[in-house]
Amino acid sequence: MAQGADLRFTQSLLGQESPKTTQVYTNATTKGFDQIKSPLDGLDL
């Protein structure tokens, strides 16, 4: 996976049973990642 993310970890986060499904979604959703903001980004730590 891109950026060194672990496929099994991502699969678990998404609640998917099949790694093939996770691969399809992770390959199909890379466009616009630079515009995604985490709710944690707004915290003043």
Automatic annotation (TrEMBL):
<dbReference type="GO" id="GO:0003677">
    <property type="term" value="F:DNA binding"/>
</dbReference>
<protein>
    <recommendedName>
        <fullName>Integrase</fullName>
    </recommendedName>
</protein>
<dbReference type="InterPro" id="IPR011010">
    <property type="entry name" value="DNA_brk_join_enz"/>
</dbReference>
